[in-house]
Write a structure and sequence with these properties.
By secondary structure, the chain is an alpha+beta fold. The protein has nine helices and 17 strands. The protein has two domains: about 5-245, P-loop containing nucleotide triphosphate hydrolases (Rossmann fold, 3-Layer(aba) Sandwich); about 265-370, Immunoglobulin-like (Sandwich). It has helices at about 20-30, 65-70, 105-115, 120-125, 125-135, 150-160, 180-195, 205-210, 230-250, and strands at about 5-20, 35-50, 55-60, 80-85, 90, 165-170, 200, 215-220, 225-230, 265-275, 285-295, 300-310, 315-320, 330-335, 345-350, 360-365, 370. A hairpin with a 2-residue loop joins β8 and β9 (about 225-230). α5 packs antiparallel against α6 (about 150-160).
Length: about 400
């Protein structure tokens, strides 16, 4: 084990065998032929998690997130590769999966502890803490089958957290229960983080990921797509999701013939965006555009629409307060002290007639990204003040 490393995953792969019917498994055993398909959940994954680090895991459904967490929790064996764990692991994967419906809440506390390898004498010291955290009152002495789903979740979370592990593995556990219990659960995990324990946290909520995690990995089709600081990885993942959504809309939209610039009376010859790829909130953003006209007598105006990468319109502006343009022109559009927050955006420039009805030409700039600099949601900074 490498010093200072809590979890060392080396070239790990996991392949599931998928059988169309249960009998196909038996036929395969008897005939030694192949009656299954293979699904590669993880493919050559290598990561290290340092002691005291909180690692976030993001990715689409089927990316391999749950498989990875189960392998770290030792409830699933990898097909190949090596996993070395330094410390006791407690996992919040399927809350209450180790409970017995006929046992009382108290009995299940001891039963669950035994599954984690904790002796009854040790669990006895923690029973009061579990009961206090779960807040299910006298129901703690009733069979689990009489519990509501909320009571079930409360008890399961309380028992798992009372184990006091070196490494805590969490999969979407903060999305269960009522708002009060979600707040209580979040505070509990934060307290574990502050004590310097190692946490591996998986969630579809990027807010929770950014709030809790120091570092994030993005899994895509079983591969490690990105590994880095939480703000950078979550922003890249969100941009990917938004672009994917936008591409679906484009594919579904009816095809419209695009006019060639060579035949347009007035056309956009070039667009130069400065800065080009990364723009920080507060920077000046400029677009230098060169317009060419085949007929100097034709008047035209310019319009610009600012889009997020998923085609959400942020702002639309035009030159209606300015004089009409004729002939070839060079125009610069400037956004001083840009007040966008995190996200990926682009500008679409339109050349239109004097009434903003007919569109001569349209052209989009290259996308630019505004880095995430805070956990506050949204994409526009607006002036504000608190009066208290």
């Amino acid at each position: 084990m490498v010093e200072g490393v809590a979890i060392d995953i080396r070239d790990v792969s996991k392949v599931y065998r998928l059988y169309q019917r249960p009998i196909d498994r038996l036929r395969e055993m008897l005939s030694r032929g192949r009656n299954h398909k293979e699904f590669i959940a993880l493919n050559g994954l290598t990561i290290r998690v340092r002691k005291g680090e909180t690692l976030g895991v993001v990715g689409e459904n089927g990316a391999g997130k749950s498989t990875l967490l189960k392998i770290i929790s030792k409830t699933l064996r990898p097909t190949s590769g090596e996993v070395v764990i330094d410390g006791m692991v407690s996992s919040l994967l399927e809350l209450g999966s180790g409970f017995h419906p006929e046992f009382s809440g108290i009995d299940n506390i001891y039963f669950y502890g035994s599954l984690l390898g904790i002796p009854s004498s040790e669990m006895k010291k923690r029973v009061e803490e579990v009961v206090s955290f779960a807040e299910i009152g006298e129901h703690i002495n009733y069979p689990l089958k009489t519990y509501s789903s909320g009571m079930h979740v409360r008890l399961a979370f309380a028992v798992a957290m009372a184990v006091q592990p070196d490494i805590l593995v969490v999969d979407e556990a903060l999305s269960v229960g009522d708002l009060y219990f979600q707040k209580k659960s979040t505070d509990k995990i934060l307290s574990i983080k502050e004590k310097g324990n190692t946490i591996v946290f998986c969630s579809h909520s990027l807010y929770y990921i950014n709030r809790l995690c120091d570092r994030v990995i993005w899994l895509k089709n079983g591969h490690l797509e990105m590994d880095g600081p939480a703000s950078e990885v979550t922003q890249a993942y969100e941009t990917y999701q938004l672009k994917k959504e936008a591409d679906k809309k484009v594919e579904a939209a009816p095809r419209v013939p695009v006019k060639s610039h060579d035949t347009a009376i007035v056309a956009i010859h070039s667009l130069i965006l400065t800065p080009s790829a990364t723009v920080r909130s507060g920077d000046d953003l400029t677009v230098e555009m060169e317009i060419v006209s085949l007929d100097d007598s034709v008047p035209y105006r310019l319009a610009a629409v600012l889009f997020r990468i998923d085609e959400l319109r942020i702002l639309g502006i035009g030159t209606d307060a300015h004089k009409l343009l004729y002939g070839n022109s060079k125009v610069t559009l400037c956004f001083p002290s840009l007040q966008l927050k995190e996200g990926t955006f682009y500008l679409r420039i339109h050349v239109m007639d004097e009434n903003f009805v007919h569109k001569y030409d349209t052209k989009a700039t290259e996308p630019f990204t505004v880095p995430k600099e805070s956990i506050e949601p949204g994409f526009v900074n607006l002036p504000y003040k608190w009066i208290m």
